[in-house]
């Protein structure tokens, strides 16, 4: 038989010995050693601490743990056990067991996914889109065809600061708008991301992070969801001036200008390669010019160039007999190997094989742009003809003809270059010639091209690019944007697991949250009251509702049918609670100060078995809130600014708790602590063991009245939610206040919680659904349910959301599948 274990501290697991591990008794009755009490983190509430055993918030003396009584009984037990079994002191303490019960409602997406992407979603009203301006500008800049511009793929839009931006669609929503539940803007954006393929997400994150690190890559502001068409866009900065504007000016004869632009191009592409990104094709419109004359690359325009090449190749594949079915734009220069990859990908459902695209593919495009500056439009026309013929030849799988086409084109380019530069700049001509080799492996690196161009202006004494050259050359991997998942989205059926759920689907309980996810919410109306619904409670298989019509209705939870009506109140019934005891009862209170006790047994009795009255004077406005504790008390929040404790044994008034400066509007009990909210804007915490005050929240803020009266509270474990008359919600997680949330534009009359899910409703006739993150201090609005009347009461129970309204109707939302 194992020897009995010694009493030990719940924090350090060391046996109590009266010397180094002295047990101190907290107000909840649990004991913790004095040393651990000193080291425990203190809540932000003064003179309080959370018991490490039961997490209850209890009083804590200002003098420290030494002012708490010793647990003499535990010390006596420890002493007797040590005398009978001295070896027990050296026994290894057992680690505490942690229960991991599953969440009642699983997440729509993982917390890690939400954490990684939440900061990249920019607010709804950040972007201003003018379709007519976007169409005209896109067409004039030569960056989009009419069909593409009209589809909004390359729309030029404005941010709040009037900063021009470009948009590129990265995903679309598949949710139907014809549903009771309206997803929030943020939830729609995250949902599109969540349904994207892993490759596309990885590529998108690579672009976003690269734009922060490399100043030559256009700034990616984030992701914006267009609620009009359901598309998610990558938002990047855009400058009005691009290389397209420069090529149309007469600077080709100026070698210095050519050298400056060439160096800028090389530096920009080098920075892109530093981020392990390759385009494989660039256009003049892809390069913007900042306020200091430096070039940067617009990745959104790179994607648009890729789409236009795809469309052209698709037409060529469809009409192979028509060599001139569609032509490349004059200022677009895809490398031959990129065209080969595009042509190979005839079936969009097939993955790419091993790609031949490398950093040298961008060298081809740079060289073509430089030759365009040197030679002029004649080079653009020759190159356009060559690339169109090259594509046609690739489609017909004539590899030898491709080499012949390339050699013929290269000879023409060499002749044009000789005519332009004559016998000067031999090294430059040779280097540009190498950049246009058909074999990517024989092309020079970007840094060699940069140094050669730089020598046209100056011969520096220091090789400042040596380290950059080595860094780029030694890279063995790169990601080609135009061959990635963002440019080539796969269209294949979703995977189905053994349970019948598609890839990306979420398995959740069949409740209203499941209905939200499946866009299938069923609504049932409960009619019976003659005035505004003021409160809801559940227990014993029944739903209880109270109303301004001075009655309490009883509804069956099984069939949602009306069962009974309690009558007797002479004033508006303001609050109701269910008390689960051996003989269950329902307590209702009105604004005349009367409290009714109703026996919950079938058949129901017509009259209350007990009636109580609060004292009142001419300033009194009755009872506004009710709460019940497991310690044998129920509590009333009143217009006289007090909270009254009533004994459940003899229904006598035990005490009155004072401190609020206005009407006590709401009460809640959790972890043996009573929380009271008031019109004075503060929340007070009371210890239920002796009804003494513990702490006050929001008292300083209430003095300045930034949020107004507190109208309702909700509690779940260590999360406290308070709703204000100005539409704001304040949340405390583990006693730490989070940033206030502007959930509604007007008063919030009711809130309720279920695990991480928070429901709120009020004057704007809408129930807002939000999710409280477990891992961080984040609150995400998932969406809303629009109603026909002001929301006055909320209750969540076993997958059903009960919504009491001012129009006398109780709406029950549940999964409609």
Query: Please, what is the CATH homologous superfamily of the largest domain?
Result: YVTN repeat-like/Quinoprotein amine dehydrogenase
Helix content: 25-40%
How many domains make up the 3D coordinates?
4
Uncertain ranges: 88-106, 132-156, 347-353, 465-475, 492-510
Mean pLDDT: 80
How many strands in all? 45
Keywords: Metal-binding, Repeat, WD repeat, Zinc, Zinc-finger
GO molecular function: ATP binding; protein kinase activity; zinc ion binding
InterPro entries: Kinase-like_dom_sf, Prot_kinase_dom, WD40/YVTN_repeat-like_dom_sf, WD40_PAC1, WD40_repeat_dom_sf, WD40_rpt, WDR86-like, Znf-RING_euk
Protein name: Protein kinase domain-containing protein
Give the helix/strand layout.
Blueprint: E1 23-25, E2 31-33, H1 34-39, E3 48-50, E4 57-59, H2 72-84, H3 111-117, E5 127-128, H4 131-141, H5 146-151, E6 156-159, E7 164-172, E8 181-183, H6 185-194, H7 198-213, E9 220-226, E10 231-237, H8 243-247, H9 255-274, E11 277-278, E12 281-283, E13 287-289, E14 295-297, H10 299-318, E15 332-334, H11 336-344, H12 360-375, H13 377-395, H14 399-421, H15 426-435, H16 446-454, H17 466-473, E16 479-480, H18 512-518, E17 521-527, E18 533-539, E19 542-547, E20 551-556, E21 562-567, E22 573-579, E23 585-590, E24 594-599, E25 610-613, E26 623-628, E27 633-638, E28 642-647, E29 653-658, E30 664-670, E31 673-678, E32 683-687, E33 693-697, H19 699-704, E34 710-716, E35 719-724, E36 728-733, E37 736-737, E38 741-742, E39 748-754, E40 757-762, E41 766-772, E42 779-786, E43 791-797, E44 800-805, E45 809-815
Parallel strand pairs: 11-16
Antiparallel strand pairs: 1-2, 3-4, 5-6, 6-7, 7-10, 8-42, 9-10, 12-15, 13-14, 17-45, 18-19, 19-20, 20-21, 22-23, 23-24, 24-25, 26-27, 27-28, 28-29, 30-31, 31-32, 32-33, 34-35, 35-36, 36-37, 36-38, 39-40, 40-41, 41-42, 43-44, 44-45
Helix pairs in contact: 9-12, 9-16, 11-13, 12-13, 13-14
